[in-house]
Amino acid sequence: MSDILRAFPGSLDGATGLTREQISLVEQDQGVPLPDDYREFLELAGGGGFHPLRGETYAFPELLGIKEYAREILEEAAPRESLDGCVVFMGHQGYIYSFIGPAEKDGRTYEVAEGHDGVHEGAPSFAAFIRGTLWASYR
């Protein structure tokens, strides 16, 4: 993750990282171990100020409880799906949520949105999601 962020000079300007204790709270809130790339992102920018995610709910402490909001949307959009084993890492205005799938799905990212059917596949990993977000922001 740090290599990806270093490839985009200035991407961490103003960003604040989380302490181990804060990351532990996020992990407890999610109810599953955090993937390494996501944990590293939290260490570097999980406290906010990461400009490419401006306007999104991704930072501590707003991140706490986000999985329950995503669960409500998922129940409507894909009632046969579950967030068990998943890590919800971002929300967009309370109606779109992005999450990292469980280990058996190799850590891919997914998105669920209110008013849409199903779950939509995203990037092959959280690191790939961030890389794509940075490419879109810095072009």
Number of helices: 5
Give the distance, in angstroms, between the N- and C-terminal Cα atoms.
Answer: 19 Å
Strand order of the largest sheet: 1-2-3-4
What is the helical fraction, as a range of percent?
25-40%
Give the total of beta strands. Answer: 4
Radius of gyration, CA atoms, in whole angstroms: 14 Å
Proportion of residues in β-strands:
5-15%
**CATH architect. name:** 3-Layer(aba) Sandwich
Q: Give the count of structural domains.
A: 1
SS-derived structural category: alpha+beta
Low-confidence stretches: none
CATH class: Alpha Beta
The main pleated sheet reads as: 4 strands, antiparallel
Q: What is the approximate shape?
A: globular
| CATH topology name | SMI1/KNR4-like
- CATH superfamily, called what? SMI1/KNR4-like
Order of helices and strands: HHHHEEEEH
Describe the structure.
- It is a single chain.
- The chain has a single domain, classed as SMI1/KNR4-like, CATH 3.40.1580.10.
- Helices cover 37% and strands 13% of the residues.
- The chain has helices at 2-6, 20-30, 36-45, 66-77, 126-138; strands spanning 87-92, 96-100, 109-113, 120-121.
- A 4-stranded antiparallel beta sheet has the order 1-2-3-4, with helices on one face.
